[in-house]
């Protein structure tokens, strides 16, 4: 009988503790109120960044402190010409115009500071590309604290955070960097067979600015939560779902549908690869905030080689690398928020 009596308090304690610290959830500093986020993304490239930005702005628990328009490297000029954009503007400025369009779309025009980031990648390691966007990151990071950190949501190259850190290394104590980028890890999904993957051993966002990635991984002390290629590709949506669920969603659906190029419409699927930024930063548990449905590995950061590859021979500081994401919550919440905004627009 004594064993029976002792068993239940122990069982209750175990269940209570497991509820307080869900497996696979990075437990950040205690938060009160809304989570502070700053978004840096190449909004003039693939449409996934636009989906993420609309979703992020509609989340009531997100205090969006700023939006920085990022570059998309040398590839952008041809893309912008096909999209009918002026060749006189650099792609960071075009990203700014996209952000301003979306702020107007969701009824928040003028309420969030929007600045252009670097017009292109770093040309020399250790030398920042100073921009309005990098200065905004420094400014907002200084207003944050270790207790109320600023979540930097990066969906493209790391140019602006590498530059901001070089401009003021002290900001690292006040920020958490979430980055969509980098190739697979040994504990992640295996690479596709060689005849399918081509020569893309280096993931796209990393490849956009290898020097910036080397600054962040090799030199900085930034807290880094990485969502690598095999994980952000889990955020796969079908084109049939976009046609059926998203495009009919009033002004939001029409806008997002108009930004999907002809190549995307030829496929059956579309990767909303930037959307996990909203999931991990904002769609968290109420107490001891964490993305409870997402799992990660705490690992030593690899060094980034000049070619953009991982070098595990000299391990760096510990970082978090995500292994799975909760697509049920991510897409369910996105669709509902778009639908609720459509109803709000219709009632006005």
Q: Overview of this structure, please?
A:
With 348 residues, the chain is α/β, with parallel strands linked by helices. The protein has helices spanning 2-20, 48-58, 76-82, 91-105, 132-143, 159-167, 194-197, 204-208, 210-219, 229-232, 239-246, 250-258, 262-265, 276-281, 327-347, and strands at residues 35-41, 62-69, 114-116, 150-154, 175-180, 223-227, 236-238, 269-271, 295-300, 303-304, 310-311, 318-324. Helix 6 links the parallel strand 4 and strand 5. Helix 11 (239-246) packs antiparallel against helix 12 and helix 12 (250-258) crosses helix 15. The longest helix is centred in the last third of the chain and has 21 residues, at 327-347. It is globular, with a radius of gyration of 21 Å.
Assign an overall shape. globular
- Give the strand tally: 12
* Rounded Rg: 21 Å
Query: What is the CATH superfamily classification?
Result: Ribonucleoside hydrolase-like
- Strand pairing plus helix content: what structural class? alpha/beta
Q: How are strands sequenced across the largest beta sheet?
A: 3-2-1-4-5-6-12-9
Instruction: Assess the beta-strand content as a share of residues.
Output: 15-25%
CATH architecture: Alpha-Beta Complex
Ranges with pLDDT <50 over ≥5 residues? 1-25, 75-88
Q: Give the % helix.
A: 40-55%
Ends apart, CA distance between termini: 67 Å
